[in-house]
TrEMBL record:
Lineage of source species: Bacteria, Pseudomonadati, Pseudomonadota, Gammaproteobacteria, Lysobacterales
BP terms from Gene Ontology: cell adhesion involved in single-species biofilm formation; negative regulation of bacterial-type flagellum-dependent cell motility
GO terms for cellular component: plasma membrane
Cofactor: Mg(2+)
Organism: Stenotrophomonas humi
Stated name of the protein: diguanylate cyclase
Length: 543
């Protein structure tokens, strides 16, 4: 067997193919859970100082105890808004749904609408809900009288990943087109340009479906409890100093246990975050310009493919394997860390890491297999060496003894080989040996046949399950082909090459050993040499 050697351009094509496969794996998000775990590790403790203008007015357990069972009359919210307006709050996001008129007291809607108008800075939420999985979603908006009084409407669509963690959001969304800003973005004020990845164009979407755009990863200011929080009832009853409310961006929302929505985030550390604090994080992130953008799909594929290609090319260099692995395996993680911490870009590294590890393992196994083969190969001719020959002869002798099938052993000698070296030089002598080896290898082509270089100009062929007639047929083909080939020497002259062969065929008995088989074949070779060379001799009475 010959060793496969690739040229540089073949290596490049192979590396490109491996890189393209890794890029495709990354694009299909096979390792999305592992990527998200890596993301959580990188951002989980990456805190920053929260924007000091943000304040949460919490409908907490204390407020429910003070003000009674939920829901409260809308006039109560109107009184709260008046308190905030008098204290000089800059913006108020009233993160509560008023999608139906007050059925008990219609004046309550008017009271709340008037308070919203007086404030002039109140944001109200819009939520998209589908009655069923197959139904067209509907926008749940405040009742018209309240909606008309609001300074702005904003969506509260929170993106929850498949593992239940809120890592990102769409800054714009809406039915038919993405026209509503996220509540946290509206609270932050004018953001220009709006960051985020554009959603891919999907021809299956209809004007009646919920469209989302400008996706970003949310960088949290810290774990739950990072933002200052005051109780709704305390603000309502005037127990909070107006100076604490002045100039604030206020989020009024539910935090009471058992009632408020609960979110897990990369910073939660098994603690829940309220929807109000989530919106505060959105506003703080945008005010501080800390939005994290995932790489565009083509850029993600490019970086994964490039890293894997470079690793594949490094395997063909003279670098030691441990050094290639020590650099290549952590490289995607390092690139992800640099892009995230230095440029607020998220590169998902796991597909590249896994592809590199698999590539290095395959390379290592190939190297082990290659060196094992090389340890049993003759470096000049590529045939099996003497050690491999002796191991195989022992195995085939035992197998033939068990099966009762004949085993043939050929010993081949290049006639007058020393004269090639003396007359034409060792280079021509090596060419003769390689040519003879190739001819033998071509003829001994069955899976269990073994051709070996036994000595300087001596070869051996083991032919399992081969009677003497079959061995003789192969020998005659070998002699004829060698005579026809010759070898080209100085000035294009054709020098004759011939072989002398001894063959021994036997069905091994208990007393027959590899050594005895070899001695019998060697005796046949000696008789053939005495007969004039360029011929063969077979044992006259094979058993």
């Amino acid at each position: 067997m010959r060793v496969l050697r690739l040229r540089w351009h073949q290596h490049l094509l192979l590396a490109a193919a491996v890189g393209a496969l890794a890029g495709w794996i990354s694009h299909t998000k096979v390792f999305w859970q592992q990527d998200e775990s890596a993301y959580d590790q990188l951002v989980g403790n990456w805190n920053y100082e929260a924007d000091p203008s943000l304040l949460i007015v919490a409908i907490d357990d204390h407020s429910l105890q003070q003000l009674g069972q939920w829901p409260w009359p809308r006039g109560t919210h109107a009184r709260l808004l008046d308190r905030l307006q008098q204290a000089g709050a800059e913006h108020v996001a009233l993160d509560l749904l008023f999608i139906e008129p007050d059925r008990k007291d219609r004046d309550q809607d008017a009271l709340l609408a008037d308070a919203i108008k007086r404030s002039g800075n109140v944001l109200l939420p819009v939520l998209a809900v589908a009655p069923s999985d197959e139904a067209v979603p509907e926008e749940l908006m405040p009742v018209p009288v309240i909606s008309a009084a609001a300074a702005q409407l904003a969506h509260t669509d929170i993106e929850i990943e498949g593992d239940g963690i809120a890592r990102g959001l769409y800054l714009k969304a809406g039915i038919g087109s993405a026209y509503w800003p996220a509540l946290g973005m509206a609270l932050a004020g004018r953001i220009d340009p709006v960051p985020g990845l554009p959603s891919p164009q999907d021809s299956t979407l209809t004007p009646y479906q919920w469209h989302r755009d400008n996706y970003v990863r949310l960088r949290y200011a810290g774990p739950p409890g990072t933002f200052p929080q005051v109780s709704y009832s305390d603000v309502l009853e005037g127990r909070i100093a107006p100076g604490l409310l002045h100039g604030r961006r206020v989020i009024v929302g539910m935090t009471a246990s058992g009632v408020a929505p609960r979110l897990l985030t990369p910073t939660s550390h098994e603690r829940w975050m309220s929807g109000s604090e989530y919106q505060a994080n959105v506003a703080s992130m945008l005010l501080a310009h800390h939005a994290i953008l995932p790489l565009m799909p083509l850029a993600q594929i490019f970086f994964v493919a490039l890293l894997v290609m470079l690793c594949a090319m490094a395997t063909t260099s003279s670098l030691p394997p441990w050094l290639v692995g020590a650099v290549a395996i952590p490289a995607p993680l390092l690139l992800s860390f640099i892009l995230l911490r230095g440029f607020n870009l998220w590169f998902a590294p796991v597909a590249a890491v896994v592809s590199i590890i698999v590539l290095l393992l395959a390379w290592g196994l190939w190297r082990i297999r290659y060196w094992r083969r090389q340890a049993n190969r003759d470096p000049l001719t590529g045939l099996a060496n003497r050690m491999r020959f002796e191991e195989t002869l022992q195995l085939e002798t035992d197998a033939a003894r068990r099966s009762g099938r004949p085993l043939s052993l050929l010993l081949v000698d290049v006639d007058h080989f020393k004269s090639y070296n003396d007359t034409y030089g060792h280079y021509v002598g090596d060419r003769v040996l390689r040519q003879v080896a190739n001819t033998i290898d071509d003829l001994a082509r069955r899976p269990r046949d073994l051709a070996a270089r036994f000595g300087g100009d001596e070869f051996a062929v083991i032919l399992p399950d081969t009677p003497q007639a079959g061995a003789v047929q192969l020998i005659e083909s070998l002699l004829a082909r060698t005579r026809q080939q010759g070898i080209t020497v100085d000035k294009g002259r054709l020098a004759q090459v011939s072989l002398t062969i001894g063959v021994y065929t036997v069905v091994p008995a208990a007393q027959d050993t590899p050594a005895s088989l070899f001695e019998a074949a060697d005796a046949a070779l000696y008789r053939a040499k005495e007969a004039g060379r360029d011929t063969y001799d077979a044992d006259p009475s094979p058993r």
